Amino acid sequence: MTAVLGIDLGAGSLKATLVDETGNTLSEAAAPIATQQPKPGWSEQDPATWWQALCIAVPQALGQAAVPARDVAAVGLSAGAHIAVLEDAEGQVVRPAIMWNDQRSGAEAAELHARAGELIIATGLNRANPTWTLCQLAWLQRHEPAAVARARRLYLAKDWLRSRLTGDWTTDYSDALGALMSDVATRGWSPDLCGLIGWDMATLPPVRQPEEIAGRVTAAAARATGLAEGTPVVVGANDTTVELYGAGALEAGQGAIKLATAGVVFLACDRPEVHPPVSCYPHILPGLWYMASGINACATAHRWVRDTFFAELPADTAFAEMDRLAAGIAPGCDGLLFHPYLLGERAPHWDPRLRGDFIGLTLGHTRAHFARACYEGIAFALNDVLRAAKALSGATFGDMRLLGGGARSATWRQIIADVTGLTVKVPANGDASFGAALVAAAGAGLFASPEEAARRCARIVEENRPDAGRHATYGRFFALYDEARRSLTGISHRLHDGG
């Protein structure tokens, strides 16, 4: 048997997925990652814990599948974008990695936008905000200059982890762009953007294609992970890039909705679509790009409803009961609306002071209604993002892949199809680790190109088509949802500010 291994470093865990040459998932294993929050708004991780997690998950995945290490043709990695690791001249990590959700660099981001916002957007396609590495590095220069002075190499998260396997130092364009330090014209590092903060470009790695072999597993890494010495490891790409690719969204107009902790909407495009604060990234396939934007509380809101209304049930049982009860309630939930703004909101309102709410309560509403209102409210919030993307870019949406844990719910899938009016398709495996494995398969020569790998291996296992009558019903309720949000915004702000 020939297999490929995909490894994805997520915010809370590292996942390893072993895939055969036909795209079948052979095994999956995961290990947790801890996040430190030393101050309000800060979010950091120790890169050493990433390597420890990899050394737990990879042997487990190999063992579960009973695949000999010599049969692994290649390894691919992905991780969240914007996460930089600095190493000194001795190869030691200078400080913990600042995560993409860290907010400490707000002042630096505002200053960069005021000073050179048009240049940053024209060159790097995205607007400066605390998510992006450029702003985080500006904060380090101001507040931790000694750490910056020690830095000799900058890695992005997946690249640092890969360097533990191979000793190489390189990155791909998705992560260079995610640093907000690259040039769309050259697909390399930008002297102009690096110059805005005086960053030494000698610390930045070469930029290569995701499917290129970056190096091979060293003897030491083989002993630590159970992989065979000499196994090829490809460059890889950031997590959202390989997720969209691995889900089989390979043409402009195809996209994905991810029902995870946050809800994310992706759309593949045939050119860069620059609409800050909506993010723009390169697709794995040459000539394609994608937009990405999302809502703050998706599975977070789902879990809150479970814990609040179904607390007496074990977690898995509670989710199944929510699904069963929600399926028995008519669309529109007998007039009960839910705004899932439990953490404020990102797209399309970008308002951290919005508050969540249930509107339209009567004595006739039961917890079954709250369960369905949760599904419908999140679907409305995602539809809000889709409508804004259409208005901003004029883009048209084809079918949408549904990713994340929420895709397992048949009730939720159908609600999303009926609310959006789009056909919803569920891939056999929509994880970033699966997409990373397909990139590795192309790099190993198992397929002629990344496109062939995805077309042959990204299979759809479920499909939900919108019902015209329910779509019309939801159109009326979405209008009420939107009107209520606008009417209550001022009240939300006052509540957030203490009344």
Comma- or semicolon-separated keywords:
single chain; 499 residues; alpha+beta; Nucleotidyltransferase, domain 5; 2 domains; seven-stranded mixed β-sheet; four-stranded mixed β-sheet; 23 strands; 41% helix; globular
Describe what this molecule looks like in 3D.
By secondary structure, this protein is an alpha+beta fold. It folds into two domains: 238 residues, Nucleotidyltransferase, domain 5, CATH 3.30.420; 215 residues, 2-Layer Sandwich (Nucleotidyltransferase, domain 5), CATH 3.30.420. It is built from 16 helices and 23 strands. A seven-stranded mixed sheet has the order 17-18-16-15-21-22-23. Helix 9 packs across helix 14, helix 12 crosses helix 13 and helix 13 packs across helix 16. The longest helix has 29 residues. It starts with a strand and ends with a helix. The model has no long low-confidence stretch (mean pLDDT 95).
Write down the CATH topology of the largest domain.
Nucleotidyltransferase, domain 5
Beta-strand residue fraction: 15-25%
| Cα gyration radius (Å) | 23 Å
**What would the average pLDDT be, to the nearest integer?**
95
